[in-house]
Amino acid sequence: MYLRKLLALSSVLFSIVVAGAADFGPNLIVDPSFTKLGTLPASFSVRKENNTVVLCKKRTDSGEYTMVTVPLRKLIPGRLYQFGVRVKTADISAEFTEVCNVEFYDKKKFREAKVLHVGKGSRDWHEISMELTPGEGPFDSAHIVFFLQRGVSGSVCFSSPFVREIKPDLKRLERENAELDPAALPDALRPELEAMRSRYVERVLSEMPVDAAAGVEQYRHVEWNALRQLWKVAGEFEKVRPQVAVAPEFADVILGVATSAEKVLPRAASFRPLPPKVSLSAAQNERESFQLVVFPAGRDLRNVSVTVSNLVSADGKSGRNAFTIMPVGYVEVEPGTGADYVGFYPDPLMMHLNAVKTVKSGDAQSFWFRLAVPRSQAPGLYRGEATVSIDGKTAFRFPVEAQVYGFALPDRAMLPLAITYLLKEKHLKMWTDMLTDYYITPDNLYNLQFRQERADYYGPDFELLAKMKQDGTLNHFNLGYVDEALDDPKDNHGMKFQIDRIRPRYEKAKEFGLLDYAYIYGCDESSNLVNTDLTAKILKKEFPDVPLFTSAYDRGHGTTGQLPSWDWYCPLIPVYENTPSAVAEARRQGKQVWWYICCAPLKPYPNIFVDSPQIEIRLLMGAMTAKYRPDGFLYYETTNWRKHGNPQSLGEEVFTDWNPNSFGHVNGDGYWFYRGPDDIPLPSIRVEGFRDGLEDYAYHEILRGKVEAAKAAGRNSAWLTEAEEALRIPESLVKSLSEHTTDPFELLAWRQHMAELIEQAE
Asked: Is the pLDDT of residue 570 over 90?
C-alpha cells in the first residue's frame, strides 16, 4: 500500500541510498548455514560454535590449495547488493589475504570476481563485507567461494555468509523529493528541470518490478543527489547572473565550477554555482586547475567555447595568458571497481578542440582551466577575464584571479618514480614534452629487447635521458627487465642471455653519466622467492652499482630471509601500510621500500581508475605519501589501450566511443593518456590529479626543509611550532589508506596552510 502511494506522487525519484538508510532483501546464499556441503576437501572442517555451524580452513603446507563453493540464487544486473561473512582468523601469515569471493560465470566461463580480505595475525569473530553491483555484461550463474589465498599459512573460520539486496529507503526518498520546491527555481530554468524529473519518473516506473515484494529496482543515488544539488545551484546562480550575463537569450543556461579534485559526471552532475570571481593560488613552476561547468536547461547549445584574457598584475605591466583551456571528454565505463555510478565519466582532456560542437540540454559540459605559472613569474595577484561564447555570441564573462606565491617547485618530482610509457619509438620524442609536464620520465619496466631490433619494446634513449638530466627533469629509468633465474648452472642459472642484453645499456648509462638514475627491474609480482633471490645474487656480481628492484611477494621486504638480496622492494599500498615494522627494518638495513597500485587495490583503497573519485590519486601522491613516506612510486603502464577496438585517436565528439575497460573489468587501468589526431598526446584528468598530488607533496617537503633548517640554526619560534604541526597529516585528511576525506576544500586548505608557512619562513 505504501509503495503504491509513493508511486502515485507526481514527481517521484528512486535512488540507491547510502548505508544506514537502506533496507535489505533476503539472504541469496542457498546454504548459508553450511548444512549441505557434503564431503569436504582436504584442510576444511565443519563444527558448531555457540550453536552456529562454522566452516574452517587451515593450511600449513604453502603448496596446498582447496576451496568450498556454495551456490547463489539469481542476482540481477544493475542492482546493489551487500556481500559479507563473519570470520575468525588465527596465525594468518600475510596482510591483505584473500579468503572469500563471489564469482560470476557465463556458460561456465569465468567472468569476474569480487573478493574479501583479512589481515595478518589472529583476530576473533568480526564481519568483513563489501557492496557489489553485477554488471550488464552476460553472466548466468554466481556462487560463493571460501578458501585461503595461495602461499599464505594459518587458519580462517567462516560463519553466517550473506548476499542480500540493498533496497532504497522509500520514506527518505519521499521526504527528499518533497524538499524540491519548483517555486524556488527561476522561470527560465523551471520547465526543463521539472521535465528532467518527469523523464526520470517515467524511466523508474517503466523499469519497476511488477511485484513490489520482489524488491524495488536500484537506481543510481548519484543521479538523485545530482538533481537535488542542481536544484540548489539553479537558484544560487541567479544571484550572480546579473554580473556575468552578456546575452539575455541564455537565461536558461547555468554556469558552475568545480575543483580539479572532483569529477563532474555529465549526466549526473554535481557542482557549485559560479562565484562572483574564480580564484586560484599556485607556486612558481606549478600547474593548478579548476573546472567551469556549462549546463543548458532548456535547449541544446551549439559551438560552446571558452577563452581567457591575459592575466595582469596590480601594476598593470605584467601581462600573460597563463591558462590552457581544454574541453573535457567522456568515456562510458563498465561495472567493475565498485563505483557508485555506471555511465559516462569525465577523463580525456580534448586539448585539440577549440569548441564543443553540441552541449545537449540536461548535460553538464566541463571546461578544464589549467594555470601554468612560469618559474620566473613575480609573486603577487594577477587578474583576467574569462569569456563563454555560444554559437558565435558572447554569452557570459566572469573575472578570474591567480595568487602567485614567492617560492618555486622543482622541475622534477620530489618523489622517485618508475612509470612505464609503452608506445613505439616513433612516438617517443613527440610525447616526451607531455610526459615531462607530468613529472614522468619515459621508462619501461618490462623492456627486454633493444629498440634496434623491435621498435615497440625500445630500451632507454640515452641521449634523451641525458638531455632530461641536463634540464633537471630526469627521474629513474630501467636498464632492462629480468625473469626469475632458472635452475641451470651451465648457463649461469639461465641468466646469461638477460645479462648480455643489459650489459651494453649499462655501459651506455656509464658513458652518459646516468647510472645514478638507473635500476634493474625484475621478477614482477613473483611468488617464486627462492629463484627470485637467486636472480639478485647473480645480477649483483655483474652490476654491483645498480639497484635491483622487484615487486615480488615478500611481505618482509627482504628482512625475513626470504628475499634478502634485492635493494628496492615494491609492495601494493595496503601491504606497505600493514607492514610498518618490516618497512622500518628494511630501511635500517639500507634497503628502499616503494609502493604501487595497478588493477588493485579496489575500494576502499585509492586508485587511478576512470570511475575512482578524482581526489583519491591526488591524496595518494600527496598527503598519503607525506604520511607513509614510501621511497618511491611505481606504475606499470600509462599508454596501454589493450584490445577493445579503441579508435586510434579521439575525434571531435566529447562523448567518445573509447572503451575504458582496459584490464579485467577495471576502467582505466594501465593508461593515463589518449591519442589525439595525428597521434598527438592527450592527457586525462587523472594524470592531472597525479601531478597535483606530487605538487602537494612538494609543498610538504619544502616546508619540511624549512623546518629542518630552522632547527639546525637553533631557532625556536611560534612559526616553528606551527610548521612542525602542519607537517603532521591530520586524520581528518588521511586517517589511513582506506579512510580519508572526500572534501576537496579540506585538501586545498591543507595545501594553502603549508604555502603560507613556507612564505613566512625566515
From this structure: yes
Confidence of residue 16 (pLDDT cuts 50, 70, 90): very low
pLDDT the model gives residue 450: 38
Last residue of a domain, one of 185, 217, 249: 217
**Are residues 201 and 159 part of one domain?**
no
Contact at 8 Å (CB) between 537 and 556?
no
Domain ranges, residue 368: 229-408
User: At CB < 8 A and 24+ separation, what contacts does 358-361 make?
Assistant: 358/300, 358/301, 358/302, 359/294, 359/296, 359/300, 359/301, 359/304, 360/296, 360/300, 361/192, 361/296, 361/297, 361/298, 361/299, 361/300
Do 442 and 373 lie in a common domain?
A: no
473/69 Cα distance (integer angstroms): 53
Q: Taking 70 as the threshold, does the pLDDT of residue 9 lie above it?
A: no
Q: Which candidate, 101, 613, 15, places its Cα nearest to that of 339?
A: 613
Considering its fold, how many domains does the chain have in total? 4
Residue 721: CB atoms within 10 Å:
10
Please give the pLDDT value at position 64: 77
The grid cell for 94 is 600475510
pTM more than 0.70: yes
CA distance 717 to 733: 26
User: Does the pLDDT at position 201 exceed 80?
Assistant: no
Q: Are 253 and 390 in contact (CB under 8 A)?
A: yes
What span, in angstroms and rounded, lies between the C-alpha atoms of 441 and 447?
15
Q: Give yes or no for a cis peptide into 248 (omega within 30° of 0).
A: no
pLDDT in tens, 277-300: 999 999 999 999 999 999 999 899
Question: b/e for 184-218, b at 16 or more Cβ within 10 A?
Answer: ebbebbbebbeebbeebbeebeeeeeeeeeebbbb
Residue 689 within a domain: no
Per-residue pLDDT of 160-179, as tens digits, reads 999 998 776 556 666 777 78
What does pLDDT average to over the chain? 87
**Cα–Cα–Cα angle for 473, 478, 482, rounded to 5 degrees:** 170
Q: What is the 3-state secondary structure (H, E, C) of 31-87?
A: CCCCCCCCCCCCCEEEEEECCEEEEEEEECCCCCCCCEEEEECCCCCCCCEEEEEEE
Q: What is the mean pLDDT of residues 691-710?
A: 97
Cell of 219: 537506481
Enclosing H/E stretch for 306: strand 301-308
In CATH, what number is assigned to the domain containing residue 253?
Answer: 2.60.40.10
Q: Among 373, 408, 443, where does a domain finish?
A: 408
Residues 6+ apart with CB under 8 A from 426: 455
* Residue type at position 444: N
pLDDT at 414 over 80: yes
Helix/strand/coil percentages in the chain, nearest 5: 30, 30, 40
- The CA distances from residue 532 to 55, 65, 483, 493, 575, in Å, are 36, 22, 8, 11, 19
User: Which residue type does 465 have?
Assistant: L
Let me know whether 381 and 252 are in one domain.
Answer: yes
Identify the DSSP state of 455.
G
* 473 shares its domain with 564: yes
Q: Let me know: does 291 contact 258? Beta carbons within 8 Å.
A: yes
**pLDDT number for residue 12:** 29
